[in-house]
Design a protein that fits this description.
Its EC number is 6.1.1.7. With 288 residues, the chain is an alpha+beta fold. It has helices spanning 14-24, 36-39, 113-120, 133-143, 151-172, 181-199, 211-218, 223-227, 229-261, 266-276, 280-287; strands at residues 5-10, 31-34, 40-41, 48-58, 82-87, 91-93, 99-101, 108-111. It contains eleven helices and eight strands. The two termini are 40 Å apart.
């Protein structure tokens, strides 16, 4: 629905504004000018390419709004998801903060594929699209869970679906959960998902049971996943089993610490990691 599209441009970018208004034909009330916080990209570090950007939003309707009078594209609520971003790298920022013109300029475009799929499939969430919902159905089936009735349960199921899909693809690419670099990111994802499984009543390893569904969904585009199915399944199952051995004891230790101190110190967080395998990020999440 074209009437639901809105865009934003950098506050001083008249060129982008005029393209949207005069060439594309968007009315002025659908074009917003924002400052650096929303519409200026980069540099990625303390120096490098950077420039203004133009973002494209889609209005999901009032039921997703925060209700504030100030609710417009760029609001932190769910009403106007950003589905596309056009970055115009035209400066090279020095460490001192000086912005010099780039010799070679261009347009760097990035699309929110899953968000766009949700809009095209007329779904309220990316998790209701065919990119995720078959996995969610599989999770529900394994534990006879209710989906769409309680936010806490929905969020846990969504995270499980997202994380197991990420694990399947990453392990399929040869990355193994470990305590270093990329492997540590995988281990964090897996252990977070395992804790959520436990919260939903799963007592035994369950993530590995979702692997066949993920592979079936994507086998036409990624046939190599089918070839590595057994390896992916075994890696996830073994990681689940290993963490479940210490998870219960670690959670009990966490509760004891909270009873005494009402807060988690760095020393406590290290003990939970070193003894019970709790990534620091997992400890922070539980503490919140």
């Amino acid at each position: 629905d074209k009437k639901k599209f809105y865009v934003s441009v950098y506050k001083d970018d008249d060129e982008a504004y005029n393209i949207w208004h005069k060439k594309i034909g968007l009315k002025t009330d659908r074009i917003f000018r924002f400052g650096k916080e929303h519409n200026f990209w980069g540099p990625a570090g303390n120096s490098g390419p950077c420039g203004p950007c133009s973002e494209i939003f889609y209005d999901l309707g009032k039921k997703f709004s925060c209700g504030k009078k100030t609710c417009v594209p760029g609001c932190d609520c769910d009403r106007y998801p950003e589905i596309w971003n056009l970055v115009f790298p035209q400066f090279n920022q020095t460490v001192a903060g000086e912005r010099l013109p780039l010799k070679n300029r261009g347009v760097d475009t990035g699309m929110g594929f899953e968000r766009l799929a949700a809009i095209l499939q007329n779904k309220d969430s990316v998790f209701q699209t065919d990119l995720f919902y078959p996995i969610i159905e599989d999770i529900i089936k394994h534990k006879n869970l209710k989906y769409g009735e309680e936010r806490r349960i929905d969020v846990a199921i969504n995270v499980m679906a997202d994380h197991v899909r990420a694990l399947v693809f990453a392990i399929g690419d040869g990355i193994i959960p470990s305590n270093e670099e990329r492997g540590y990111v995988l281990r964090r994802l897996l252990r977070r998902a395992v804790r959520l499984c436990r919260n939903l009543g799963f007592e035994d390893p369950c993530l590995y049971k979702l692997v066949p569904k993920v592979i079936k969904m994507y086998e036409n585009a990624y046939p190599d996943l089918t070839e590595r199915r057994e390896e992916i399944t075994l890696v996830i199952k073994s990681e689940e089993e290993r963490f479940l051995i210490t998870l219960e004891k670690g959670l009990l230790q966490f509760e004891e610490i909270i009873k005494v101190k009402r807060a988690i110190s760095g020393k406590d967080a290290f003990k939970l990691y070193d003894t019970y395998g709790f990534p620091v990020e997992l400890t922070q999440e539980i503490a919140k």
